[in-house]
Each structure stands twice: as C-alpha cells, then as structure tokens.
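To: structure subgroup
Subject: Chain for Friday's discussion

All,

I'm putting the inputs and outputs inline so they're searchable in the archive.
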Amino acid sequence: MKKNKAIAIILAVVVLLAGLGFYGVNVLKDTTSKGDQSIILGLDLSGGVSITYQIMTENPTQTDINDTIAKLEERAENYSTEYAVYQVGEDRITVEIPGVFDANAVLEELGSPGALYFITAKNADGKANYSYDSTSDEEVAYKLNYKLEELIENGSVILTGNDVKSAQAGYMPDQYGGNQPIVSLTFTDEAAKIFGEATKEAAKNNDTIAIYYDDHFISVPTVEEAITNGECVISGSREFADAEELATFIRIGAISLKLEELESNVVGAQLGSQALTTSVMAAGIGLLIIMLFMIAVYRLPGVVATIALGIYTFATITFVQLFEITLTLPGIAGIILGIGMAVDANVVTFARIKEEIAAGTSVSMSIKNGYKKAMSAIVDGNVTTFIAAVVLMILGSGTVKGFAYTLMISIIMSMFTALIIAKYLMQAFYAVGFKDKKFYGAAKEIKSIDFLKRRVLWFAISVAIIVAGIGGMAFHGATSGNAFNYGIEFAGGTSTTVDFEKTYTIEDIEKKIIPQVSKVLGGATVQATTVDESTDVVLKTRTLSLEEREALNAMLVKEFGVDEDTISSQSISSTVSGEMRQSAIIAVIVACFFMLVYIRLRFKDLRFATSAILALVHDVFVVLAAYALLRITVGNTLIACVLTVVGYSINNTIVVFDRIRENLTTIKRQTPESWYEVANRSLTQTLTRSMYTSFTTLVMVVLLYIIGVPAIKEFALPLMIGMLAGTYSSLFIATELWYEMKVRIKAKTE
C-alpha cells in the first residue's frame, strides 16, 4: 500500500469515527432526555401506553380469553416487538405498547377489537344482505339490511375470522403493467371447502362476498371466479399501507370476544428511571476498560482495535435508531454479545499476527497472513451466531424478536469493523511508518497443556452442576410447587393501584415506597410504574394472599396517609404468554439444528457439530441450574440470557475447532495419539485468546451488575455465570467430547 493511500484511509476512518461518534452521542443524549433523535425504548426502560379493555361478552371461557390475548399480541407487534398483553382479574385485558406516549393515537389505530365475518351478497331467498349507503362516511360505504344475528342464523355468514389461517399484504401485476397492492388470504382446510362452494355460486352472477369487521364493512370484493384452493386475493387497495392495514384487521379478526376500552394511561419505565442511565454508564466504563486493555496487550493493533470498536459501538447505536428498533434490556444483551464478538475477532487476528512475527515472518507478511488465517474462525463464529439470530427473528416473538434484531445488527457491524476497518487501518499504519516489530509484539511459545488428561474430571464437574440444578428444581417443585422462582412476567401476580394524592417522582418511589412495600411482603420483588397526569402509582408484585393485601393496605395508610378506599388490587396473568414461550423454545431448537448443519458442512465432520451443540446445551443447563439454585427471578430476561449464552458459547467453541481443523492438516498419520496431541496443542494455542475474550466480554456484564438497578443485577448475574460456563465448555468440554467421538466413533472414510 502506498503512503498517500494509507494516509487517506486513516483520515477517512477518523472522519467516519468522528461522524458516527457525533451522531451516536446525540442519539444517546436524546434517548436519555426523550429528544427527537432518541432510540425507541421498551416498557422496561422507558414506559409507554397502557390500555385496559373490559370484556363485554358474558361468561367468556378461558380459551376465548387466551385466544383474544394471542390476537392482540399479533396486533401489538405492528407497533413494537416489545409489547405486553395480559389478563387482569377475570374480565379485563391490558395491552402495553412501549415508545408511544399518545394514548389517543394508539387507540385510534389499534381500534376496538371485534369479530370478523364473511357475508354473502344474498340470502337463501335471493334478497340482498347489504347495500350501498350513500349517506355513510365510512371508507367502504355499505350497510347491513338485516341484523348480524339474523345473517348468522340464516347462513349468510359463511366464515368468521377463526377460519382464516393467514392474511398478508403484497403486490400483484395489474392490467397496465404495474403492480397493485393486494391482500392474500389462506383459509383452514374445512373453511376452504365452504369458501369454494360460496365463491362458485357467487361467480355465476358476478356477486360480492363482503368482509364485515366489528360494526362496519372493511371490504366488499367482487367474485370473478370460484376459489377452491383455499387461497384468495383481495384487490382494490389504493396504497400498500391500506393493504397492510386490511391484512392486519383480518388477522386479528378471529377475536370472538367483544371488548370495550375501559381506560388508557401513559405509564413509566418498569425498571425505574435509572435503568437506562446506569446501563449507558456501565457500557461507557466497560468500553474504556476494554480499549485500555487492548492497547496495553496488543500495542499498535490494540489502537486499531480501539478505533474499530468505537466505530462498531456508534454504528450499532445509529442503526438501532435509524431502523426504529425497540431497545430493551434483552436488546442491550444482544449489543453486549456483539461487543464481545467484535473484540474477539480482533483478538483472534492479533494473536495470529503475533504468532507469525514470532515465527520469523516479516511484519508486512505477518499482517497479511494473520488476517488470512483468522478469517475462517471469524466468519464461521459469526455466521453460526447470525444463523441463530435469523431463525430467532423469523420464529420468535416479543423479547426473542427484539433480541434477534439487535444481535443481527451487532454481528454485521462487528464483522465489518474487524475484517474491513481494522484490516485496512492496520495496513495503513504499517505503510505510513509503523514497520518495527516492537509495535506489534511477538507471541511467546507456550508449552502444550494437557487439557484432555483430566477430561473425566471436567465431565464430572459439569454433570455434578447440572444434577445439582435438576435436584434444586425437583426440591423446590416439591416444596413450593415451582421449580423456579418465577417472576410476574412468567407466573402473573397482583397489580395494586394506589392514589397517593401527591405526585411522586420515580426516584422517590424507588427510594421511599418500593423498599417499604418489599419489606411488608417479605422481600418480594416490586415493579412500580407511574401514571402520567395522575397521582396514581401501579405496584406489581407476586400473587398476594388476602392477608398480604390487607397488610400492604395497612402499611400504605399508616406510612403514606393513603385513603384505603383509593387502593384497588387485581390479579394479573403472565405477560410472557404460553405462545411466546413455545415460540422461543422452538426457535432455539431450530437455530441449533441449522447451526449443527452449518458446522457439519464447514468442518466436514459431524463430530465437530455434535460436540459443539452438546457444549452449547451444557451451558444452557448450567444457566438453568443457576436460576434454580440461586433462586434468581425468572422473567423476560431468562430468554435473553439463554439466547446470549447460546451465541457466546458457539462462537467460543468455533474458534477452538477452527484451530483443530488447521492443525489436523499438519500431522502425517491420523491416530488417536496424534488427535490427542492436536487437541491439546489447539486448546493451548487458543487459551490466551479465550481468556482475553472472556475478560473483555465479562467486563461489560460485571459493570452492569455493579452499577445497575436491582432488576438489571438479576439479569447480569446469570449472564455472568453463563459466559463463564461458555468459556469453561470451550476449554474443557467441547474439544474433549470431539476427541472421545473421534476415537470411539470412526468415520466411514477413516
């Protein structure tokens, strides 16, 4: 590289860092002060709109309520991935949407959920069921000629929203050679037959089949031909946004309960006002420590890594803000994992460069060879994690989807900064005069450590921890009925609304009210949210007995002078629905399968893939054991914690396996003895990298634990344990499993 080009690259990188830094800092400032450029924050970090619906249908079944909650979740996801929908008492449902503070606007767009009906143009007597209404101000100006109940009774209502399997907006070619927005519907098998017969009859007379939602028509399409395959297309939307809105109405139209808005409020952050501030502070201090560490250990390459890490951080913040991704505590976990992978990519590369220099290679060739040899480990580690993120985004919901979005952005930016920014910046620094080996350092030869000698001990330790965790789950399950210490998000609880008749700031609530409430309830975790333009405070706790409710009320009256008549309590269901939990589990299983397939294809050996997945499963069980034995509250963050550990663990293991794959090509004879030696040598060669990566990643999590609010501490503790487990498994479990499989299960080609 010529000197002029090198100077230009350095200046361009500096300008890029300055520009992203300026924009990123402003975004963070706006986020903490709710400015124009702020990142959309979740309910846990910022609060949002809370809307409570009264169920107007008499004697609804729990199945109907659960179905309604599922459909409202689908609707809420149009606003944010980080919504909450849960049952309150026996006949109410609350919808909470983060990042929105205009309740009226949300209500107008969300609408009042009702039932969806497909109605034929004529009844059995040949009389019109509906007709054009010139006086109507509705967009679809039609009116019913009979009561809806009569149409249902006489068979004119052929299908309801429950018969629709899916509804998606899209485009199709029009007669003018362009594209028109349409809505594609897919019916259930039984409904497809009914719809086929109805459209066959309607097509004879070019009749319509109307779609009626709640109390008005949303579409009256003409049937041009019989539709017998269970799929149909609704055209006529002027804009794609109109088609999207129609598709959404149809998707949520299966709600069989009649709901009526009871109240709507703007509520404060669930984790408290200091959650975001302390998280940003922890991240800032953590990044500073990581940068200083990298410079101290790697010298000039450490400076390059510091610049690349700065670009990664500010670029990730910028993209999260520009793509309007809702950031929550799990999202922060995705960014932390991305920081770890960004640092790891540089650590792997710099370790290779130092090895090349120690072997007597020139600095120029060492830089070139270092990036070349590190490429496969970096790509494989990031791609396997990216595969998991894509699967989680497609199959997950709620917290899982939000985590996947931030993780995908983090992975892309970490690879960009490590493989492009850092690489060209390193070459540019060399070209402008930093050519002496002292700027880069040389790797010291480490005597091969016999990791495999005590592999039975390592396996025994892991089994003991997992068995202890299972034992803890069984014990607590038998004594308390719950294997884990389920939080409000998983188990539901009690919501107590208190009118304090004076405005308390969230800081006052955290310092004065929450400790008192927690004390009277035996140390129970308390979530408090303020209600905008009100003196009400909502206290969410585990499910309280009648005696505990009375004790809480008495304390509030005595200590805060509250009028007991203004205190109201309601039981609330879990905000993490069964569907959300199921989708998370399925997403993780599918992600593991695709990771296994990718590793099998890249390493051309199923034993690498199997041992990597087993090590990953080991780490998940260790995390679950920590939750069970330490009685850490199980809430939304459990899912994020497990997903973070999965990504961290697989990346750690891939780096070691990449070195094993490389070293296997250097041995003359493939024997158990040579495999044993290769395994130990590979673990030794990557040991320093494993330690450095673990340190730099754990720094962020430890600072979150030290500085963060109590709810963040409950997230950081199991995350620390999971990351330590990931490091342990990559050194003492994965490779040892690979060796055992290699010896005991010979491939057909060997």
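Points worth raising on Friday:
The mean pLDDT is 85.
Residues 493-572 form a domain with the Alpha-Beta Plaits fold (CATH 3.30.70.260).

D.
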